[in-house]
Amino acid sequence: MVLNYIKTEWNKLPWMIIFAVILIGPAVSLWIGFGVPTKAGEGLTPWQWYFSISIHKYSLFFLPIVTGIFAALLCRFEHLSGGWKRLFTFPVPRSFIYLSKWIVLILLLLLTQIVFLAGFITIGTFKGLEGLIPWDLFVKSLLSGLAAAFPLGTLLLGVSLFWKSFATPFVLNMLFTVPSIIATGSPRLGIWYPWAQPFLAMMPENHQWAASVDPLVLTVAVMLYISVFAFSTLYWLAKTDW
């Protein structure tokens, strides 16, 4: 049954906007990463160096912003058409509807990560970066970033369910994204800031920020926030009279 709702949510998405968001975020990040002429850091191959530069702005700014846009778009159809009342009259638990939207959000983030990696490999190849492509580093970083974006995605999906306006959750997300710069300055505190978690999870282990991150604590923080945000939203959905 959940699978049917996932297909429905997938088909309702405004794909022209989705494709634009998926392409623009990674494209700007890669333009920054490859556009600044720099020499590889000590002990790093060109692939590793350009990857760390590219994912810096991508994971710190663009991934959180993209997550918020996807969450808002997933709820936009129901808000515009007044479809929540009709949707919740169906003989299925409201949790199924929420879960289907959450899964689609994760799939969109996964697609964004894949586009970023494909773009990076393509540009790096044309640029003639030397050495073997460290696939293990790239895949680990992108999957870690995806998992670390789960709490933020869960929170923003709940926020998008609360507010009918598309602009409200978008502006709130932007406002909370900016302090990530301060939060990542102290990784031990940044671990507990949802907007900073993707950055701390994606940065290579030899990076100064990642070197101060305890993977176990970050994992606990991610799982804790997912649980808190998801159960809070489900409780609100169950109690709200649409």
TrEMBL record:
Lineage, highest ranks first: Bacteria, Bacillati, Bacillota, Bacilli, Bacillales
Alphabetical keyword list: Membrane, Transmembrane, Transmembrane helix
Transmembrane helix found in the keyword field: yes
Transmembrane portions of the chain: 12-35, 55-75, 96-121, 141-163, 170-195, 215-238
Matches recorded under Pfam families: ABC2_membrane_4 (PF12730)
Protein name per Swiss-Prot or TrEMBL: ABC transporter permease
Signal peptide: none
